[in-house]
Amino acid sequence: MQEISFIELLGYSIESNRIKSFIEEYKLNEEIRIQKNTDGYIYEADTWKEGDIISLTFIGNKMYSQNYGTPIDVSDNSSDELIVSQITVDNNFSKNKEKSPIDLPFSLELGDYKDLIFEKLKKKPYDRSKSTYGYAWWYQYEDFRILTALNDKYELIWLRVMKLDKYEIEKDKLKKKLRKQNKNIKAENINYITGFKNKLPTIEWKRRKSEGDGIFTDESIEIIEKLLIDYIAQIITLTKKRNATTIYNSVKKITKNINRVNHRLNVIDTLEREELCNFINKIVRKTGLNIDSEIDLTEEWREW
After folding, report:
1. Which of 122, 231, 268, 289 suits 35 as a labelling partner, its CA being 20 to 30 A distant?
2. Residue 120: strand, helix, or coil
3. 121 Cβ contact partners less than 8 Å away, ≥ 6 residues apart
4. What values do phi and psi take at 151, rounded to 5?
């Protein structure tokens, strides 16, 4: 069989000849684990089983079409057919030091050192974090991202390719055109932005705490309230400067600050997450920054 690029497999239906041939060629597990949401739609499925080197992750056609666009080679559009959204190669390289049995994208090889990875991918990672296995370094392209998992010696030990959803693609386009949005920033909106001090999520949290909601403490409410008030002040300053890029980048800092508080105090559940996301997204949009209504600016960095 002719080698198929990982990237070309993303978006294909499990019923397509291409995916059927791939599963057969690499002897992937055909007893697929499926998870459905409360509406009965498949939000995740995978071929993984213990010892597998290659695994495919899928999303049902209903959710894929909504979040990613039109899938490829679907046999029955009325069904919730499985569509490839991720591909993982993990050959337990840390233990056996063997190469991947399948060609990796961009001519990568398990065991490649970080500098060689940069050279092959023709870019440096947009995000780096520590992990139990060493380091997780992320690279993003037009419609997909690559996770390179590195050991403590910065050698590639496994790899994952993931399809970007429509909102991530739109967000990437937004970032590339931020400078052009300086003209959209409206200093006359500062009064509206100041008014967000009366719309703090913590006002509602205090009410719920007084009614017995045990998720809150005085400390957690006080800390997050101060973060949000300081954020309002920062947005007012940035709006006066009419700099769309710094306004956009401010979301990363406030989101990560809330991450740290929540890791320590565990104050954010589903409702609190919605309230904080709405607050941050609304205040940024009020500056005049033109952002698709479906984009959640916090999602990229949010851990709550």
Report:
1. 268
2. helix
3. 106, 108, 139, 146
4. -85, -175
Give the whole-angstrom CA distance, residue 284 versus residue 290.
9
The parts of the chain modelled with pLDDT lower than 50 are 1-4
- % of residues, the chain, pLDDT over 90: 84
pLDDT digits (tens, 9 = 90+) for 161-173: 999 999 889 888 8
For 122-147, letters b (16+ CB in 10 Å) and e give eeebeeeeeeeebbbbebbbebbbbb
Residue pointed to by tokens 């060609």: 103
Q: Can you tell me the distance from the alpha carbon of 292 to that of 123, in angstroms, rounded to the nearest whole number? A: 28
DSSP string, 123-162: S--SEEEEETTEEEEEEE-SSEEEEEEE-TTSBEEEEEEE
Spatial CB neighbours of 194, under 8 Å, sequence gap ≥ 6: 232, 236
Closest CA to 60 of 73, 88, 47, 41: 41
Task: Specify the long-range contacts of residues 27-35, CB closer than 8 Å, at least 24 apart.
Answer: 28/52, 28/54, 28/55, 28/56, 29/55, 32/58, 32/82
Q: Are 169 and 150 in contact (CB under 8 A)?
A: no
Q: What is the pLDDT of residue 278?
A: 97
Cβ–Cβ under 8 Å, residues 171 and 300: yes
CA–CA gap between residue 17 and residue 24 (Å, rounded): 10
* Cβ neighbours of residue 287 closer than 8 Å, sequence gap 6 or more: 185, 186, 189, 193, 235, 238, 239, 247
Angle CA 187–190–194, to nearest 5: 170
